């Protein structure tokens, strides 16, 4: 049971961190090289797609971290799982406060006009997203050390 939970949590968290990393390192740099109209279209599509899927993935990851904390409650690894869970909760709260409003504005961008404000929003989102990735990586490392990967 514990091994299956460890595997499910590691895969869920690891894949999420990988997707978030890929957006920042691969997707956005390519988008910035497109012409304005294509950039707006790509940003809107990615913002809508990821904005729909990621909330469920974040919650599932948090629930798995909570299950890990319960299962490992009598082991030394529980402290690292609690740290990972705390980081995850902080990331969710900060995402809701700062990244989601920008994401929602990007979804509503006018396809024929890529204003300076839109560009600033996208750059700001990407900068905050990089901080989020760093926090998620820290949480993932805590998880992996706690479960012995």
Question: Could you describe the 3D structure shown?
Answer:
This protein has 149 residues and is an all-alpha fold. Helix content is 86%, strand content 0%. The protein contains 4 helices and no strands. It has helices at residues 2-31, 36-71, 78-107, 116-147. Helix 1 (2-31) runs antiparallel to helix 4 (116-147), helix 2 packs antiparallel against helix 3 and helix 3 packs antiparallel against helix 4 (116-147). The mean pLDDT is 95.
**How large a portion of the residues is in β-strands, by DSSP E?**
under 5%
Radius of gyration, whole Å:
17 Å
Considering DSSP H and I runs of 4 or more, what fraction of the residues is helical?
A: over 70%
- Number of discrete helical segments: 4
The residue ranges in which pLDDT falls below 50 over 5 or more consecutive positions are none
Mean pLDDT: 95
**Number of beta-strand segments:** 0
Distance between the termini: 16 Å
Structural class by SSE content: mainly alpha
Overall shape: it is: elongated
| Biggest beta sheet summary | none
Give the H and E element order: HHHH
